[in-house]
Design brief:
- By secondary structure, the protein is mostly helical.
- It folds into two domains: 3-67, Orthogonal Bundle (Helicase, Ruva Protein, domain 3); 92-117, no CATH class.
- Helix content is 50%, strand content 3%.
- The chain is built from six helices and two strands, in the order ββαααααα.
- A two-stranded antiparallel ribbon has the order 1-2.
- α4 packs across α5.
- The chain is elongated, with a radius of gyration of 20 Å.
- The protein starts with a strand and ends in a 7-residue tail after the last helix.
- The mean pLDDT is 94.
- This is Small ribosomal subunit protein uS13.
- InterPro entries: Rbsml_uS13_C, Ribosomal_uS13, Ribosomal_uS13-like_H2TH, Ribosomal_uS13_bac-type, Ribosomal_uS13_CS.
- Part of the 30S ribosomal subunit. Forms a loose heterodimer with protein S19. Forms two bridges to the 50S subunit in the 70S ribosome.
- Keywords: Ribonucleoprotein, Ribosomal protein, RNA-binding, rRNA-binding, tRNA-binding.
- One of its GO terms (molecular function) is structural constituent of ribosome.
Length: 118
């Protein structure tokens, strides 16, 4: 079983899909990583050699911000917006949609369940 950045990759998946289990790596990033390391994207995770896993670890460590560091970075970005009092920061603070979506209807994910008016 391959363990990269503290994440156990699912052993029966293709490596191009398995890499997306790491927070901060999507399909296109996974494809780029596999091209750099010259690993076949259709290889299953359990078929990887230790040498290939080490190559993957090195590329991800050197070129990508992933997992805990990325989460900390995003959290600090949102905190900065809140601290300076920007419009986006105020929306984060109030728990409302940040990117201009309407709130008269919908927006239930950010606002939570309906509160009836009495």
């Amino acid at each position: 079983m391959a363990r990269i950045e503290g994440v156990d990759l699912p052993k029966d998946k293709q490596i191009k899909i398995g890499l997306t289990y790491i927070y901060g790596i999507g399909r296109s990033s996974a494809q780029d990583i596999l091209e750099q390391t010259k690993i076949d994207p259709n290889t299953r995770v359990h078929e990887l050699t230790e040498d290939q896993v080490a190559k993957l670890r090195n590329v991800i460590d050197e070129e990508y911000v992933v997992e805990g560091e990325l989460r900390r970075q995003k959290r600090s970005d949102i905190k900065r917006l809140k601290d300076i009092g920007s419009y986006r920061g105020v929306r984060h603070r109030k728990g409302l949609p940040v990117r201009g979506q309407r709130t008269r209807t919908n927006a239930r994910t950010r606002k939570g369940p309906k509160k009836s008016v009495q």
